[in-house]
UniProtKB/TrEMBL annotation:
Keywords: Membrane, Transmembrane, Transmembrane helix. SUPFAM superfamilies: Rhomboid-like. This is Peptidase S54 rhomboid domain-containing protein. The lineage of its organism: Eukaryota, Viridiplantae, Streptophyta, Embryophyta, Bryophyta. GO terms for cellular component: membrane. Its main location: membrane. It is found in: Membrane. It comes from Physcomitrium patens.
Length: 193
């Protein structure tokens, strides 16, 4: 699906994220601790906030999530590693903050007492989906079972496999980072998207 340079060439930040998330998730899954890193109101510590964006809790989430992170390496190649690293820190920190706001807003509700927000780099993945939607054009359209689809549809279907509860909040982060990108993400000038 991704034409151009293959592998992690010119995508050192993406390579670091994929390798780190993969290794941390596999080690914690082998220990049986992966689900312990989900964010919940009852178990909220600073180290959990730092490690939580690196841990996928299940094997399907790990496989699909790592594929999406690898697939979205095109944004690092377009913007450069330093600007993409800023994008990663911005989206991850803001989405984690919005998840905390969600937890603290609904802390007295009986609904939230049983909810745990899945760990993993969902903020980065879904913010990248916003960039993918606006910045990557459709190149092939075809009919599948009588429905018009494009090659982008398969990427969206893969994204459903790693979806989490605060999907709307991380999509807002992606829209905000896209508006920042219009000013500085690619060239640092006042470019129009």
């Amino acid at each position: 699906m991704n034409a151009g340079v293959s592998g992690f060439k010119n995508a050192i930040v993406t390579k670091g994220i994929v390798v780190t998330c993969g290794l941390v998730s596999l080690v914690l899954a082998a220990r049986g601790d992966a689900k312990a890193y989900n964010l919940s109101y009852q178990r909220l510590e600073l180290w959990r906030l730092v490690v939580s964006p690196l841990v996928f809790t299940s094997l399907p989430e790990l496989l699909f999530g790592l594929y999406l992170l690898y697939f979205f390496r095109v944004f690092e190649r377009q913007a450069g590693s330093i600007k993409y690293l800023f994008f990663v820190f911005f989206t991850t920190s803001v989405s984690t903050f919005l998840e905390l706001v969600f937890l603290f807003t609904l802390k007295d509700s009986s609904f939230i007492s049983s909810i745990r927000l899945n760990s993993g780099p969902t903020g980065l993945i879904f913010s990248s989906f916003v960039l993918f939607f606006f910045d990557v054009p459709v190149s092939i359209r075809f009919k599948l079972l009588g429905i018009k689809v494009s090659e982008k549809s398969f990427v969206y279907l893969i994204g459903l496999q790693v979806s989490s509860l605060p999907f709307a909040s991380v999509s807002i982060v992606g829209l905000k980072s896209r508006s920042i990108k219009a000013k500085c993400f690619y060239c640092g000038q006042g470019c129009t998207p």
